[in-house]
Please model this.
Amino acid sequence: MNPESKTQQPIEKTFAAGLILILFRLIPLGMRKVIFKALLMLFYHLSGRQRLIVLSNLKRAYPEKDMEEITDIAKGVYRHLAIVAAEFFELPSITKENLHEWVEFDGLENLDRALAQKKGVLSIVAHFGNWELMTVALPLGARPMSIVYRPLDNPTLDNLTSWMRTKGGNTLIPKGGSGRTITRLLGENRIIGILSDQNVDKYEGVFVDFFGRPACTAVGLAVLALRTDAPVLPAFMARMPDGKYRFIIQPAVEITRTDDYESDLQVNTQRFTGIVENMVRQYPDQWFWIHQRWKTKPWQ
Model:
């Protein structure tokens, strides 16, 4: 067997990462959520720069809303991030037996149908809802996936996050020069998760419309879809009013293929971005509005 085709073993926690996990888990989840909400709301009021980024992004995305509505959404963004952060330390305790207490699946048949084609699956993933919970829920509810990622700047947090993401059998693919690895894994009928909602430099992407503004967006997903013919499925983990999550797996996206490759990259990247926007519009406080999504400008 080719050694590269073996499933990557879970990453071992460092002592520092394990200590952080233990300390936070000593605090009951309910209390942890209260503490994290208080801290994030304090950060909202004290960090003027980040608050202005969120408010500016929201106001330009929703010009029809008044500032009171915009402010309510902005505060909701911080509360949502606090919940996600508090729940992060519970992820190791989720099992097949208690998964239903956290997640309900909506669209697993779309994944089964895509995998039946034996071409692998490319998944559109965003910094939306509880995206880290997806890395636990999918191996338990369906099968492991491979995740394209960029290491976090803090080594301890990167180790803890990587351990969490791989303990259920997922593998990690470092971002940058990963095309050959992804193509091989698709040939093995693997699921590939690619975050598709971040700003990139001009040389890495194309400008597409996102909430009425040109957003520079990576074309890697479109390149892989055109090159491999693997189905592309959007996947989102949306938090419901009762606190549980709905793991939404949408049907495969139609891929445009013509004789104009550059146009195909543009059209398909716009289609993928539009899907993310439609989901964010349904749950506006569950997206990462703190990110400078429109940082790269067309005239730069």
